[in-house]
Amino acid sequence: MRILYRGPLASCNYDCPYCPFAKRRDPPERLRADRAALRRFVDWVRAADEPIEVLFTPWGEGLTRSWYREALVELSHLPHVGRAAIQTNLSGRLGWVADADRSRLALWCTYHPGQTTPERFLAACATLHRHGVRHSVGVVGLPEHLGPARELRSRLPPEVYLWVNAADGHAYTAEEEAAWTALDPLFGYSVRPHASLGRDCRTGDEVISVFGDGTVRRCHFVAEPLGNLYDGSWAARRGPRPCPKAACDCHIGYVHLRTLPLYEVFEGGVLERIPAAIRAGGR
Hints:
283 residues, alpha/beta, two-stranded antiparallel ribbon, 13 strands, 29% helix
């Protein structure tokens, strides 16, 4: 089972203009609630009786908070946890990765031009590479990011996958799409929404989303709850079901559609967004 977890945390140290959570500060009580919720979730995973993979998808930046670093280390050492991963802007210190089981730890890293320098971001990537931590890196495909993305690709090791997310509300010309596809051969999956209504999807069965209070949904984009993780009420509604949404346009959603070949494309690296071809030695 793959679990996407999102707690109350909504603060970030970056102020990206395309992000609604930029430079938001969480009050102390929200931080305490987030820490307690994450502890409860990790304890549940520790006691689970089936193989699990976890991806943290915080609204804000989690790795600047000690409890996310500690959770990743702890989860990576549990024998039934195959992957402990997080989405991050890679701005925090990375010495903690030495304490994790690096064969199970993974980072999904987003480069935000204008918020950090390429040198600092690449130095963080080099630290992950030196420690043998699985990671992908990527950018939001805004026109002003094309030059920085090209520089990033040229300076990253060829075995590191660089993904591109289509920018919300931006229509791409054929030339723009070709330019981004030259950097990310899989950009075509991001640039157009995928018809999903009534389509077979792994969410709600092999994949669930869990929120800080334990609410379980089939995915982040379907509001209807399946139940609660901690009282076990979700389990009765666990099972395959068609998607109720007209379209799916976010990677952490459409990657799970059975109508797309992405489980084969990302085999062994679904949560951290690393294609199988990359691990086989291609770019």
